[in-house]
Write a structure and sequence with these properties.
This protein is mainly alpha-helical. Helices cover 88% and strands 0% of the residues.
């Protein structure tokens, strides 16, 4: 036997071994099982999307309430600042009075 015959015989033997291996151990693909898994996941995703829409509407409601409360807080802060300025002016005015004027102020205040 010459070298080319030996090489050719080895190649044919290797191919036969590969073919026998593939027929004895076929690639397993269970299409129906995969399809049912995909369908199950699709229904779960659809349910989650519905929940997400519900939560989005709840969040929008809370955002509206937060905006309303923020405006109320801002208005209260503005009123508080006006009162501080008004009382600050009175305190400055009282601070400039002498003892006799202070005595008269408190006497008249509690009558």
């Amino acid at each position: 036997m010459n070298k080319s015959t030996v090489i050719l015989s080895c190649i044919i033997a290797a191919l036969l071994l590969c073919i026998l291996y593939l027929f004895n151990n076929p690639v397993k693909s269970d299409y129906s099982k995969q399809k049912s898994t995909i369908d199950s996941l699709t229904s779960v995703i659809a349910g989650l999307e519905k929940e997400q829409i519900k939560f989005d509407s709840i969040i929008k409601g809370y955002e509206g309430r937060v905006d309303t409360l923020s405006k109320k807080v801002s208005d209260a802060n503005n009123k508080l600042e006006v009162e501080r300025k008004k009382h600050g002016k009175k305190i400055d005015h009282i601070g400039k009075l002498n003892v006799a004027q202070l005595d008269s102020f408190f006497t008249n205040r509690y009558r």
